[in-house]
Amino acid sequence: MTRPSDKKIHLAAFVTAGPGRPGGWRYPASESGWLDADYYQGIARTLEKGLFDLAFFADILAVPDRYQGSNDTQLRYGALGSLRLDPVVVLSIMAAATRHLGLASTRSTSHYEPFEVARSFATLDHLSAGRAAWNVVTSFQDAEARNFSKKEQVPRNKRYDRADEFLEVVFKLWDSWQDDALVQDRKTPLFADPAKVNYVDHEGEWFSVKGPLNVSRPPQGYPVILQAGASDRGRDFAAQWADAIFVSHDSLDSAKAFYKEIKDRVRSHGRDPDSLKVLPAATPLVGETQAIADEKDRALRALVDPHAGLSTLSYHLDVDLSKYPLDSSLPDIDVPGVQGHYQEVREATERDKLTLRDLGKRYGSRYEGDLIGTPEKVADGMERWFREGACDGFMISAPYQPGGFEDFVRLVVPELQRRGLYRTAYEGATLRENLGLERPGVGAWKERAASGAKARRVA
Question: Parallel, antiparallel, or unpaired for β 182-185 and 190-192?
Answer without folding.
Answer: antiparallel
